[in-house]
Design brief:
Layout: E1 2-7, H1 11-24, E2 28-34, E3 38-39, H2 44-48, E4 58-60, H3 62-68, E5 70-74, E6 78-82, E7 87-90, E8 95-97, E9 100-103, E10 107-109, E11 122-124, H4 128-137, E12 143-147, H5 151-162, E13 166-171, H6 183-195, E14 199-202, E15 206-211, E16 217-221, E17 226-229, E18 231-234, E19 238-240, E20 256-257, E21 269-271, E22 276-279, E23 293-294, H7 299-313, E24 326-331, E25 334-340, E26 348-354, E27 359-366, E28 369-378, H8 382-396, H9 403-410, H10 416-421, H11 424-429, H12 456-462
Parallel strand pairs: 1-2, 1-9, 2-5, 9-21, 11-18, 12-13, 12-18, 13-14, 20-22
Antiparallel strand pairs: 3-4, 6-7, 7-8, 10-19, 15-16, 16-17, 22-23, 24-25, 25-28, 26-27, 27-28
Helix pairs in contact: 1-7
The protein binds flavin-adenine dinucleotide.
Flavin-adenine dinucleotide binds near residues 8, 13, 34, 36 and 155.
Length: about 475
């Protein structure tokens, strides 16, 4: 029986184990080792905002692992990997042998070397324990300072704003969301936040954090200004969890280097998720050429990686087309999204900007193909939300738009026609990662089964058999077709 071992119980590890179980059947032994419970970090801000209960951040409990036939060793760290003997040394003194191994150990937050950063009241927001601490300390409506205005920091900012906390943000770069938006898009976000009472300090850094006489924290900024806070959240970037691999012979640069089967430099050893530098969909030369690797550090990429690695561990030959760099974010009901190569200088762009709404769209072109896009606009703007999804499809499929490119340049707020007309919808509907439709995975926690929501009209609407659409009863439109 092949022994598959997975290190890490995050989205990448869980996606891999489910794929192995489906493709290899019961004729495979699967062991998952993780030093934390199995949960999705991206759910933590919703837990902070009390939108969900703590149990809802979990993506696997013991009953789930038993159902999957997986030996889950939670609360245990892997300390060393011996790639010759194919064994792992564990923090509880144990040793585990493997035939195939998946490294899905994610990343950890970085703390900048600021004097006073290690004191009580200054926290990262990365783990379930961090979330519990911040919830326990954040009584009433505290004053909070966020250090680092990046994607993760702003997701946490959104949760803190929902709780009514008084918020300030310090960002080293000249504008907020520097790796997600350009200066013009960020300006729209900054205006929106200031209008909602958030204090923004950009282009500066925190020199020191001290406890003032009043018991509050006091942050001295490089500009000479001072901010006070009950709580400080540090969100200044992450680094992949690779320390335990040093000396193992596995190639590491930005993260664990993998090929398009998610295999590392050692045969039979794979890596997935935030720890893995995997193929970047848009990095190859036009018309082909090898893809560069990148760490995108988002959950969809972690799940894709996990599924591809799991399929290859189960003996299939499945290659990954690469992940699309994307970030989608709600900032106090202002929607922000970025896709692909939006940062590239010297390319033709189409821009729509209206600072008063605010509304900002930027499309980056390579001939008649969309290779990058930025969006900023109010969350209640349904057209914007639809177009965000369609822009992703247009970029992801690398579709030549032909005459539709001219149309989009002239009508940049109407992507719908180009999306359908150029055949992108049709291409996407036929595309699967592993060569077959994904299975309904049901719920993973508490043995709960999905409610029977498949009412007949809904099943027809989401179905893929066009002929059956004629079975739908037309919905009467008020005022139309009535003879009075
Ligand atoms: C607050 C927050 C909000 C986010 N929001 C979004 C979002 O909206 N959209 C999005 O796409 N992404 C979001 N992300 C990012 C997303 O959560 C990550 O990309 C994703 O968790 C990566 O999954 P993973 O399985 O690679 O790693 P992880 O989820 O980090 O899981 C890895 C696990 O391995 C464990 N581990 C590490 N080393 C060892 C070892 N030596 N031995 C045993 N176990 C080990 C870790 O403790 C961890 O439990 C968010 C992240 C955070 C923190």
């Amino acid at each position: 029986m092949t022994r598959h071992v997975i290190i890490g119980g995050g989205p990448a590890g869980i996606a891999a184990l489910e794929t192995i179980r489906v493709l290899a059947g019961q004729a495979a032994s699967i062991t998952l080792i993780s030093d934390e419970p199995a949960y999705a970090r991206m759910a933590l801000p919703y837990y902070l905002a009390r939108d969900i209960a703590e149990g809802q951040v979990l993506i696997g409990d013991q009953a789930y692992f038993a159902r999957q036939g997986v030996e889950a060793r939670l609360g245990v760290r892997v300390q060393q990997v011996d790639t010759q003997a194919r064994t792992l040394t564990l923090s509880d003194g144990g040793m585990v042998s493997f035939d195939t191994l998946l490294i899905a150990t994610g990343a950890s937050p970085q703390r900048p070397p600021i004097p006073g950063i290690d004191q009580e009241g200054v926290y990262t927001f990365w783990t379930l324990d961090d979330a519990r601490t911040v919830i326990a300390k954040g009584h009433g409506t505290p004053e909070a300072v966020l250090i680092g205005a990046g994607f993760i920091g702003f997701i946490v900012l959104n949760a803190m704003a929902k709780l009514g906390w008084k918020l300030s943000v310090v960002e080293l770069e000249d504008h907020v969301l520097p790796r997600m938006l350009d200066a013009q898009g960020a300006k729209a976000v900054e205006g929106w936040l200031r209008a909602r009472g958030v204090v923004l300090q950009t282009g500066c850094h925190v020199r020191e954090i001290a406890r003032s006489g009043s018991g509050k924290l006091s942050l001295a900024l490089s500009t000479g200004a001072t901010l006070t806070a009950d709580l400080v959240i540090v969100a200044t970037g992450i680094r992949p969890n690779v320390e335990f691999l040093r000396g193992s012979g596995i190639t590491i640069d930005e993260g664990v280097v993998v090929d398009d089967r998610m295999q590392t430099s050692i045969p039979g050893i794979y890596a997935a998720g935030d720890v893995a530098a995997g193929p970047d969909l848009l990095s190859g030369a036009p018309g082909g050429g090898p893809l560069r690797t990148a760490i995108h550090a988002i959950q969809p990429t972690a799940v894709d990686h996990g599924r591809i690695a799991g399929a290859n561990m189960a003996g299939r030959e499945v290659r990954y087309p690469g992940s699309l760099l994307m970030n989608v974010l709600d900032v106090l009901k202002l929607h922000c999204a970025s896709f692909g190569r939006w940062q590239e200088a010297g390319r033709e762009v189409t821009v729509v900007y209206n600072p008063t709404r605010p509304l900002y769209r930027k499309y980056v072109w390579e001939d008649d193909r969309l290779v990058g896009a930025l969006f900023v606009g109010p969350s209640e703007d349904v057209t914007l939300l639809n177009d965000v999804g369609m822009a992703k499809g247009l970029i992801q499929t690398k579709q030549s738009l032909g005459a539709w490119a001219k149309y989009v340049r002239a009508h940049p707020t109407d992507l719908r026609r180009a999306y359908v007309g150029s055949g992108v919808a049709n291409t996407l509907i036929q595309r699967t990662l592993l060569g077959a439709p994904a299975r309904d995975r049901a719920y993973r926690v508490g043995g709960v089964q999905p409610p029977p929501w498949h009412k007949a009209p809904h099943a027809l609407l989401v179905g893929t058999r066009p002929a059956r659409y004629t079975e739908l009863k037309p919905t009467p439109t008020p005022g139309i077709g009535k003879s009075t």
